[in-house]
Design a protein that fits this description.
mainly alpha; about 70% helix; transcription
């Protein structure tokens, strides 16, 4: 069964058939990134791999940045579960940040592409960047037992912590696996300071 997020696109709500096309395109993008890298990747190349006409691919994705951002969004939503209420607040937040960092762990081409794509100026990417940030904020607020629309300083500090760490990993200074462990440790330190 598909998730509700698989039927939402940056541009419109999707029918089952359209959602399947977008799924094939994002899976093909992941394969192309792995084999050829982000620099060589084009929307046409991805469309061919997915068995979709290039014009069809462009009805869903305005650019390769948009396609990579959508791929990351889908991976994030499917990989980062709601915080486990049986854990204490500090551990819940640490697990959320660790899970976020591990979304692209072990996939260097994808990880670098996500960093470039999410920092792009494409309006469709900007929309996804807001969705990604909102999703992570919701997970962090929930982990801390707060409402999503909170202005609690701890949530903002944790957001700054993960965004800096992920950029650092995206630039190749550390692996995403190493960053995941460091993020979890840093989150615990930060939250212990703000008790």
């Amino acid at each position: 069964m598909s998730s509700p997020s698989s039927h939402e696109s940056t541009r419109r709500r999707l029918t089952d058939q359209q959602a399947e096309t977008v799924r094939r395109l994002t899976e093909a993008a992941r394969e192309v990134l792995h084999e050829d890298g982000f620099e060589a990747m084009t929307v046409r190349m991805v469309a061919k791999r997915a068995g979709v006409a290039p014009a069809t691919a462009y009805t869903y994705f305005s650019s390769k940045n948009h396609l990579v951002a959508e791929l990351f969004w889908r991976m994030l939503v499917s990989s980062v579960p709601a915080p486990d209420p049986s854990l204490d607040i500090t551990e819940r937040a640490a697990v959320v940040l660790r899970d976020v960092a591990l979304v692209v762990a072990g996939e260097e081409q994808l990880a670098g592409a996500v960093t470039v794509a999410l920092l792009g100026s494409d309006p469709d990417v900007a929309h996804l960047r807001i969705r990604v940030g909102g999703f992570i904020r919701e997970r962090l607020a929930t982990a801390l037992g707060l409402p999503v629309d909170t202005d609690d300083e701890r949530v903002e500090l944790l957001e700054m912590l993960y965004s800096g760490a992920l950029v650092r990993a995206g630039m190749g200074y550390q692996t995403y696996s190493d960053i995941a462990d460091r993020l979890a440790s840093a989150a615990k330190l930060l939250l212990e300071e703000h008790r």
